[in-house]
Amino acid sequence: MARGTIIRRIVLAGVVLGLLQAAAFVLLIGATRSANNANGTSKGILEASQTIADLEQEVIASESAIRGFAITGRDDFLRPALAARARIPGLEQLAGARLAEPDDRALLEPLRRDIAAYRTRWVDRVVAATRRSPEAGRALVISGEGKRRVDRIRAQFAAIRNALDADAIRSTDQADTAVRQAVIVSVAGVMLTAVLYALFAAYVARSVVTPVRHVAAAARRIAAGDRNARVDAVERAGGELGAMARSFNEMADSLAETHDELEAQQQEVRGYSEELESQRRQLEDAVGALEAQKARLERVSAFGEAVAAETAFAPLARLILEGVADALRCDVGALYVRDAQRGNQLALATSRALPSEAVADILVPGEGLAGRAAAEHRLVVASHSHEALTVRTLAGAARVACELHVPLMQAGEVFGVLSLGRLGEAPFTPDDAQLASHLADHSAVALSKAVVMRELRRRSTITRVVLDAAPNPIALLDDHGHPLVANEPMRRCLPLLRERPVPDVDGGVVSDEIQDPRSGRLFTRYVARVDDADVGLHGRIVVLRDVTTERESERMKDEFFALVSHELRTPLTSIVGYVELLRDEADSVEGDDPRAMRRVQFLDVVERNARRLLRLVGDLLFVAQVEAGKLNLEAAEVDLEAVARESVEAGMPRASQGGVELSLDVRSVPTVWGDRDRLAQAIDNLVSNAIKFTPEGGRVAVRLLQREGRAIVEVDDTGIGIAQADLEELFQRFFRTKRATSAAVPGVGLGLTIAQAIAQAHDGLISVRSTEGQGTTFRMELPVHRTAEVPA
Amino acid sequence: MSRPLVLLAEDDDDVRTLAELVLRREGFDVTAVSDGEAAVAAATEHAPAVAVLDVSMPRMDGLETARRLRELEGTRDIPIMLLTARVTEADRARGREAGVDAQLDKPFSPAVLAERVRGLLDAAGAL
Question: ipTM of this predicted complex?
Fold first, then answer.
């Protein structure tokens, strides 16, 4: 059959069914309408009946009313009749409208005539009669005419009623018939439809469902694995189902093909996967090896990091030995490192698990296995079968069976050796050796740095300790005035340094005095520049010296000297002064009064001694000042010739008194820079000494000359001379030679001390040559002042 | 011409007496006091021609007295001689800074004292 047949058939069946349905429907509608009509008719009849009944009721009411009126003669009995009379026409009209059957309407006419007649011939008559006289009315009523009329009317009513009833029955019957017809038709129709529907369903079942089921079953079979399941039978069928079956078969065919192909491919794939499996196993092995290497590298790098992070020498040495020993699974070991403090030899830095007597303190290159490693700059490995170093363990004495020594190199030089040993019989493999080398390389760099750091720190500590031990505050400031180094005493004075900014210095040492306002202490501050371009150091070095006590004691000495001087000189002033007054008085006395002359003599003695005492006081104070370093000299140009001449002149009296010749020989006139009075004092001392120690008839010569930039004053005598042994002590204070004391030469032994002090204060000196019994030459040398010198 | 007035300040009794004696003998009138404060008071009151001050006196020494005299209006121009016990150049310098016109070391001979005072007066009178 052609495609789409099934649909067409379905459509056709539908149309047929539809038509049947429509027919049944139409019939049903017809029946319904009939029923409706009948219903309507019944309703009309009912209404008509009602109206007729009402009409009858009015007539009856009217009659009752009339009777009542007639009997009683009261008007109020009449009212209903009047009311009825009013209503009756309306009702009649209504009844006429409602009566549908012509037959019925025909009955109505005579009724109307009768009712009208009743009204006119009876009711009115009665009313009139009653009005005339109650008895007349009553008599009429009693006659029973009314009743007869009413009965006749009522009989007509009954007839109409009957007719109406008959109508009603007829109409009801009609309705029933119609309904019965409708029911029959409906039932028949429904049953027919049902039958047709069943037939149709059967058809569909046969021509659609079964093939579909076949196809589904075939599909299930294919799904279950039966590749050959087909729907051949259905294929033969026509229309869409046939097409579907054909498609299904084609699909099944193609599925089967595909399945075959897939199986072939699967075979191939299985072959590949076997190959892959074997490769995977190879890779796993390789990965395993790499991981082992990675672990090793990580250990090495962790070791490297730990080593790089440690800068202190001792912990680093420990870290290196422990790290390498652990990495190589070694039980014992030792690390030797060059030590600058031990003559730069390889000294033991740290050891592991070795008794101290078994490990040498110094490693000598070339001696032993470790020494070989050091000397040959390479790794040395050895295993021992019998004689070996033993180490104490829990199990007793264990042999160090295998050992490894690796040198630590830096810039081609050996600066350390790492020695490791294993107790068990596990020789070192090439891998072990390689690892040892790597670790040694890492260690070498860090260790050499640590060694340098240690040395630097040692020196820095030494410097610091020494600096801190110094009593003076010392600081090194940079060019901004910040302290780079400050020793401990300076750190205590740092606020002082900040408050008193250090002056800029060009070269040389600048010194000034500063005072700490807090403590009141005085300091002499010395500042010098420090410039070292190589290390980028530019600044100033500051050293303080606490001079508070010095100044204090100086001040006290000053006060002391001032006091002593004043206290000694004041009484002398009185003595000398009053003596002079007395002498003047004595002089003024005229004549040669021996008593007056004696008085003068005595006063001279007193004055002389007072002056002597004064001189002594002066000398003592002078010496004391020299000792105390408080000698202050004037500074001016001094003409030595004039000074020498004065000294000689002053000495003349004593010289002539002692019978000694005194002369002055000026060869040149040097000018010196100094204190005239003091220089005069020095020359006076020399001259007076010369005169004192030269016996009568001798000679004292004073010479003034210049040589090699030095001014020279020579005092040469032919006196008793000085013993060689005494020459050394000559200038000591209070020193007097035996001859001087034994010869009772006056003097207290300060003259030469003072003269020398004066000469030295002028940057000069006094020297002496003497021969006992022959004479002495004292020589004072002074630097010449650089002005024009006038030769003699 | 009336005798010129010399103000003498010296704490040692003997020396003061000596100096007073000598100065009177040389033709001066003398007002003698024994400490610096009295000296200032006397100088203000009597307007001496010359002041001779000992360097060391109780309460106010010679240097301080000299400074004070130099400060005060009425005594500013009085020539001052300082009697010193010579110790150091620094002392001399201090004397000069205090504003003294002459310094004489102890012990001095009375003649020298008189001479120097006269010299001061002449110098002042010549101005």
Answer: 0.83
